[in-house]
Sequence to fold (184 residues):
Amino acid sequence: LNPASGSSCPSGIKVLDDVDMKRYPGIWYEVASENLSFLSGCSCSQFDYKMTSANTYDDHFSCTTGGKPSGISLTLKGQIPDLSKPAVQKESPLSSWLPTAPYLILEVGKEYEYAVVYACVALPFGSRVETTYIFARDPQALTKKLIDMDGIKSRLTAMGVDVSLIKTVPQPSNCTYPSDNLVV
Fold:
């Protein structure tokens, strides 16, 4: 999450009306994001999203740092508070004493080939912390032009999201991912 100016989160955020929670779980490669600054050196970032019950999940994050696969590896605990609104989720942050962060699913592709996830938390003293993730099932989705980033950014901007800090996350063709330990 990155600090942003303004005392409140955008009011125009529109989450999906429905998400197929049988199709959404699985491996998601982080192909672009406005993310935590300490993760800025990451490449080969992936999230392994696994349901642990009807309304809880583990979201295991890993990335390569300093040339070391899984240089950062952690599991976030998530929940879906209202199963009638599966696009509105929340995850535990890195420290248990911090409040949970929203995990709002704004878009998924027709075949669940990509997803756009957003979080924003208003903070005291006129600031907010927000992040945006663009996930894909194919780590080379941007290189292969499987995702319309300009369209996604346009739709996010229309909702009041500042897209200027969204950056491509390196997913070189020689990445090693922990779930399979294979070079993809």
User: Anything to note?
Assistant: The radius of gyration is 16 Å.
